[in-house]
Specification:
With about 475 residues, the chain is an alpha/beta fold. It has helices at about 15-25, 40, 50-55, 60-65, 80-90, 100-110, 125-135, 140-145, 165-170, 185-190, 195-205, 215-230, 250-260, 270-290, 305-310, 325-335, 355-365, 385-400, 420-440, 445-465; strands spanning about 30, 150-155, 175-180, 235-240, 290-295, 300, 320, 345-350, 375.
Length: about 475
């Protein structure tokens, strides 16, 4: 019987097959946004079993296990690694039509050569066979990156990070390049006075700048921006529910920051004004340094207070938000663009109802200076599955230029996630192949092959200048 993951998986036409096998399959991977731990890459970590490399930190799988009725003891609790894996094997056959089913089988095939479907009957065999392989040097982190032909990974790093792991890794003989990304979310949260003061104190320590007002805070933050640049960083990122634009005066925001330094409470309006001021200044700095900036907008986080309080953040209790996006995003980009200081920018939405909003918003700020200067980014988070990616590609094709698109990323904390690039590439080739069959595109394989090569690799290579 043909294995489930076979050479023409997801490829429905002869043209789709030719485009994938001749143009997409062997391309290197540029994973320009992920949450991989730099420490594990620098130290070339090896994993003891599939649970450690595959289940730990994977909130996609955790959500599915909870939905299937698996007790938290076997998800983030104190159960053994083997017990947790067995519970995932029980869940897996019940993820049919969820992307986890495809991802699971694709990852077992690509990393371990396993064609057998994961289920309670195969769980022990798969666990033991992979455990033996994971003990070999061919399954260390760097070996896995090489196996997946990963050219570049861009991690996600707080301005306070000393980037020591990036520094040590840069002198290694790895064929994969690891670069940091400047992610100042916590610098602009101002959730409460205590967390704000703690952050300010730590920023002062790492920058060696005494912070006693807003000017010195910005000096310290921009100094970290310079430091990241010296360490090879060329990307920034911010994650927000939505952009709120509040007009402000210099005296207002300076006064609000002094209140924070004195442990006084500030109003939500003052928080918004401080936030937007800092974001504007950082965006101008991105332009000055020639960086790409990314805006991840739309999720509603930590919905379940009871489980958030017991388990913590980034554990699977976030979802799609229904915030208004267009007005604030437009004003933010326009404020920066007025002085011609808008850098290359990637916009990501998590709410599919706003696909057309984001696709057309990107087009407002392309000025002919750079190919694809403002991008609508790949289908993100809950949308990086077949339906979500197809809708993103179709909307982008209709309202922008697919030919300028910089393609896929993993957004993952797992070293087993790189076949998601293959998944995207197969889907893209299948869409184009079906369009040829319908007569919507010419049967010109070299022409469409160039489009595939550009979207899957070359556009990102040129856009980021890696």
């Amino acid at each position: 019987m043909k294995p489930f993951i076979h050479e023409n998986f997801l490829l429905e036409t002869e043209a789709s097959k030719k485009l994938f096998h001749d143009y997409a399959k062997e391309l290197p991977i540029i994973d320009y946004h992920n949450h991989l731990p730099p420490k594990e890459i620098a130290e070339n970590r090896s994993f003891e079993n599939l649970t450690q490399i595959w289940l730990d930190g994977d909130h996609y799988k955790w959500r599915a296990m909870r939905a299937f009725g698996i007790d938290e003891h076997f998800i983030t609790g104190s159960a053994s690694d083997k017990e947790k894996f067995i519970k995932w094997a029980e869940t897996c056959p019940n993820t049919l039509r969820n992307p986890l089913f495809h991802w699971t089988q694709l990852e077992l095939k690509r990393y371990f050569g396993i064609d057998e479907l994961l289920n309670p009957e195969s769980a022990d065999r798969i666990y033991e066979a992979t455990q033996e392989l994971l003990r070999t040097k061919d399954f260390s982190v760097r070996a896995l990156l090489s196996k997946m032909n990963v050219d570049t990974v861009c991690t996600t790093d707080d301005p306070r990070d000393d980037l020591s792991y990036h520094s040590s890794f840069s002198s290694s003989d790895s064929k994969t390049e690891m670069l940091p990304t400047f992610r100042p979310d916590k610098a602009i949260e101002f959730k409460n006075e205590e967390t704000s003061l703690n952050y300010i104190t730590e920023l002062a320590e790492v920058s060696r700048i005494k912070i006693n007002d807003l000017d010195s805070f910005m000096e310290a933050l921009l100094q970290r921006h310079d430091y990241f640049h010296m360490q090879g960083c060329r990307l920034s990122d911010i994650g927000l529910p939505y952009l709120e634009i509040e007009d402000f005066t210099e005296s207002e925001i300076k006064s609000a920051f002094l209140k924070l330094l004195r442990s006084h409470s500030i109003s939500e309006t003052e928080r918004k004004k401080l936030r937007i001021f800092i974001l504007i200044e950082l965006s101008k700095k991105n332009h000055e340094k020639g960086w790409v900036q990314q805006l991840h907008l739309g999720p509603i986080r930590n919905n379940n207070a009871r489980l958030f309080n017991s388990i913590g953040p980034d554990t699977g209790f976030d979802s799609i938000g229904d915030y208004p996006q267009a007005h604030g995003l437009s004003r933010f980009l326009d404020v920066i663009d007025r002085s011609n200081q808008l850098s290359k920018t990637i916009l990501y939405n998590v709410n599919p109802a706003q696909n057309e909003v984001f696709a057309t918003m990107a087009g407002n700020f392309n000025d002919g200076s750079i190919k694809g200067k403002v991008q609508w980014g790949s289908a993100w988070w809950f949308l990086d599955q077949l339906d979500g990616m197809e809708k993103q590609i179709n909307t982008l094709s209709n309202m922008g230029l697919l030919s300028c698109f910089i393609g896929m990323l993993t957004d993952s904390r797992s070293f087993m996630s790189f076949p998601r690039h293959e998944y995207f590439r197969r889907l893209l080739c299948n869409i184009l192949g079906k369009d040829i069959r319908k007569g919507h595109l010419p049967n010109d394989i070299p022409l469409l092959g160039k489009l595939v090569t550009d979207v899957c690799y070359a556009n990102a290579k040129n856009y980021f200048k890696f």
